C-alpha cells in the first residue's frame, strides 16, 4: 500500500459552540483548510504543527512524548480546545497533538474511527463504510436509500 493523503478542514470547537450559543458569528470560526493531510493508522489522533495550532487559536494543555514511525521519541504537547476535523459531511472532535516542527498534518486512527472511515486497499483512498449510509436491497442489487 502506498502513502495516502486526503483533504481536511480543521475548526476550533470552542468557536463552533460560541456560534451555537449566539456569542460569535459563523464567520469568526477559526478554520484551516488543508488539501494534503497524511492518512496514518499508526498515529493515534490528529497531529499538527505550531503554525496551524496558532491559526486555530489552540493553547498548551499538557506535554506529551510519542513514538514516531521510525521508533524515535518525539516531544510535543496536547492542545486545547478540541479541533473539529471535517472530511466532506463527516466530522470528529478530537484533541490535537502539536509537534512544533512537523511538516504535514497527520490524520490518525481516532478521527477516522469516529467518522467510520477506512482505507480502501484497491483505490488507496479514505472512504466511508457502507454501514454509514442507508442502503436497501432490491432485485437489481444494493442502492442508496432513505428513511422516508
Spatial strand arrangement across the major sheet:
1-2-7-3-6-5
- Radius of gyration (Å): 17 Å
Helix content: 10-25%
Overall, the morphology is: globular
**How far do the termini sit from each other?**
40 Å
CATH class: Mainly Beta
The major beta sheet can be summarized as: 6 strands, mixed, barrel
Number of helices: 3
Structural class: mainly beta
CATH architecture: Beta Barrel
CATH superfamily annotation = Acid Proteases
Report the portion of residues in β strands.
over 45%
* Whole-number count of domains: 1
Tally of extended strands? 11
Order of helices and strands: EHEEHEEEEHEEEE
Kindly report the CATH topology: Cathepsin D, subunit A, domain 1
Overview features:
148 residues; mainly beta; Cathepsin D, subunit A, domain 1; 11 strands; disordered C terminus
Tell me about this structure.
With 148 residues, the chain is mainly β. The protein is 14% helix and 49% strand. The chain is built from three helices and eleven strands. Strands 1-2-7-3-6-5 form a six-stranded mixed beta barrel. A hairpin with a 4-residue loop joins strand 8 (117-120) and strand 9 (125-128). Mean pLDDT is 85; it is low at 132-148.
